[in-house]
Design a protein that fits this description.
The complex is a heterodimer of chains A (about 325) and B (about 80).
Chain A lengths: L2 H9 L1 E7 L3 H10 L4 E8 L2 E6 L4 H11 L2 E8 L1 H7 L4 H17 L5 E5 L4 H13 L13 H11 L3 E9 L2 E8 L13 E5 L3 E10 L1 E2 L6 E2 L4 E4 L1 E4 L3 E4 L3 E17 L7 H19 L4 E11 L3 E13 L1 E5 L5
Parallel strand pairs in A: 5-7
Antiparallel strand pairs in A: 1-3, 1-4, 2-3, 6-7, 8-12, 8-18, 9-11, 9-15, 10-12, 13-14, 15-17, 16-17
Helix pairs in contact in A: 2-3
Chain B lengths: L13 E5 L3 E5 L3 E5 L3 E5 L4 E15 L2 E14 L1
Antiparallel strand pairs in B: 1-2, 2-6, 3-4, 4-5, 5-6
Classes of the chains: A alpha+beta (about 325), B mainly beta (about 80).
Chain lengths: ~325, ~80
C-alpha cells in the first residue's frame, strides 16, 4: 500500500462504469472539466471502468450526460462510505466517541518516568522521590504540572546536578539530568600537604617557601610528580610535616583543536577555516588568559568531510597542586 | 560551431516518457481513441498514437494525460 492508497482510503472514492460508443468523448469531457478521474480501464468495446472522488461524482455524471454515454455507480470505497454505512447504528457511533474520549483523557496522565544522566542509583531514587513529593509521579495529571518549579527544586536540592530537562512525550516523561562540574576540594592552610605537578612540563622556576624542594630548574616533570615535599627537615626541631608552599613555574604544552564539517553554512575550506579560527580564538581568550605564551603554532588538516584546525601553545605557567598528606591521626 | 541551446521557446505538446511504461502528454486537446492496445490523442496540429499492451489512462487533468502500460510504438499523424 503506497501513500496514494492511504489518501484514497481516507478521502474515499467511487468506482463507476461508463457504457456507450463514445467513451472517448466522455474522457475528453472529463479532461476539459478537470475532473479527478483515475484508473481508467477498457473492459470491452463499449465499456470502461474508472474511479473518482465521491464529491465530484455528480460532475462526472453531468459529463457523461453531455457526451451521450451511460454511467453506472459500482461501489463506494474508503472511510466516508464506511461511516455512511454505520451512520444509523448509534451503538457503534457512541463506542467510537467513547473510545476517542478515553484516548484523549488517558493521554493527559503520566504512565512512565524515565530518568537519564544520573551519577548513581541513589541519586536517581532521590530525584524520583523529590518529583513524587511535588506531585510528579506515575498517574499524575500532566497539565497540572509546574515544570519550572520542579526543575528549580531539583537543582536546589542537589549540588551535583547543574541542569534538568523535563519532556513529556505522550504518556511518557523524560527527565534528563546534567551533572555539575564540582571544583576540586580546597586544601586549607592548616592541612599537611605536598605540592605536586598539575601537568607535564619542564621547570623554569622553583621557589620553596615552606617545605623542601625536591626538583630543580631545567628538570622535566610528569603530572602528579612531587615538587615540594611537606616533610621539612628543621635543624632545631628535626624532621616534621608542614603545609608545603611555594612557586613552581614550568614550560608546558597546550593543544586546542576544532573540527568544522562541510555543510550549507560552510561549503568550502576557507569558510570552515574562518569559523574554526573564530572558535579557537575565543577559546584562547578564555583559557590562555593571563598566561605567558612563549610560542604558538597552527596546524590545518583538510579532509573530504571538513577542516580540522589545531593551535599548539608552549606556555609558562604555575603547575602547583596541593596534595594532602594523610598521617593516619 | 554549435550554438548554445538556450532561450528557445518551443510550441506544441510535451511528451515525456519514463522508460517504456509511463508516458505523460501535456497539451492534449482530445482523446480520439482508447483501447487496451492503442491510445490516440489530438495534441493540436497533429495526432499522436501510442501502441502497446495493457494501456491504462492513469490520470486525467486539465490538458494533461498519463498513460501506463507497455509501449511498443509511437506514431505522429500529421
Amino acid at each position: 500500500m503506497n501513500a496514494w492508497d492511504i489518501v484514497n482510503s481516507v478521502m474515499g472514492y467511487v468506482a463507476f462504469t461508463v457504457t456507450g460508443v463514445r467513451c472517448e468523448a466522455f474522457l475528453t469531457e472529463v479532461m476539459k472539466n478537470n475532473l479527478d478521474v483515475w484508473a481508467i480501464r477498457r473492459v470491452d468495446e463499449v465499456t470502461i471502468t474508472a474511479k473518482t472522488r465521491g464529491i465530484v461524482y455528480k460532475d462526472v455524471q453531468k459529463a457523461a450526460t453531455a457526451s451521450g454515454v451511460e454511467i453506472s455507480y459500482k461501489k463506494a470505497h474508503g472511510l466516508p462510505s464506511f461511516l455512511t454505512k454505520y451512520r444509523f447504528r448509534y451503538g457503534v457511533m457512541a463506542g467510537a466517541v467513547i473510545f476517542c474520549i478515553a484516548i484523549a483523557v488517558l493521554s493527559l496522565f503520566i504512565w512512565d518516568i524515565n530518568i537519564s544522566g544520573y551519577s548513581s542509583l541513589y541519586e536517581r531514587d532521590r530525584v524520583l522521590e523529590l518529583l513524587s513529593d511535588n506531585g510528579f509521579h506515575v498517574g499524575a495529571f500532566t497539565p497540572a504540572q509546574d515544570y519550572s518549579s520542579l526543575k528549580r527544586k531539583i537543582m536546589m536540592e542537589f549540588n551535583t546536578i547543574a541542569g534538568v530537562t523535563i519532556n513529556v512525550v505522550g504518556n511518557k516523561a523524560y527527565v534528563e539530568l546534567s551533572a555539575a562540574r564540582l571544583p576540586p576540594d580546597r586544601v586549607s592552610d592548616g592541612t599537611l600537604c605536598n605540592i605536586v605537578a598539575e601537568t607535564d612540563g619542564q621547570l623554569v622556576l622553583v621557589e620553596a617557601y615552606r617545605g623542601t624542594a625536591v626538583v630543580s630548574v631545567g628538570q622535566a616533570v610528569k603530572k602528579g610528580q612531587l615538587l615540594i615535599s611537606g616533610v621539612y627537615n628543621s635543624k632545631i626541631m628535626g624532621e616534621r610535616i608542614v603545609h608545603a608552599r611555594g612557586k613552581v613555574l614550568a614550560r608546558t604544552l597546550r593543544k586546542h583543536s576544532v573540527f568544522i564539517p562541510f555543510d550549507e553554512n560552510f561549503p568550502d575550506e576557507q569558510a570552515a577555516l574562518d569559523e574554526a579560527r573564530e572558535k579557537l580564538d575565543f577559546r584562547e581568550k578564555v583559557e590562555i588568559r593571563d598566561i605567558y605564551v612563549e610560542k604558538k603554532t597552527e596546524h590545518v588538516e583538510t579532509s573530504d568531510s571538513g577542516v580540522m584546525l589545531e593551535y599548539a601553545y608552549v606556555v609558562i605557567e604555575d603547575i602547583c597542586e596541593r596534595s594532602e598528606i594523610f598521617t593516619g591521626e | 560551431m554549435r550554438k548554445k541551446e538556450t532561450g528557445h521557446s518551443y510550441s506544441g505538446a510535451q511528451i515525456e516518457f519514463y522508460g517504456n511504461t509511463v508516458v505523460t502528454v501535456d497539451g492534449c486537446k482530445e482523446i480520439l481513441e482508447y483501447e487496451p492496445e492503442t491510445v490516440k490523442l489530438n495534441v493540436g496540429r497533429y495526432n499522436v498514437r501510442f501502441t502497446g499492451k495493457d494501456l491504462t489512462l492513469k490520470n486525467l487533468t486539465d490538458k494533461q494525460i498519463t498513460v501506463e502500460g507497455c509501449f511498443y510504438n509511437l506514431e505522429f499523424e500529421c
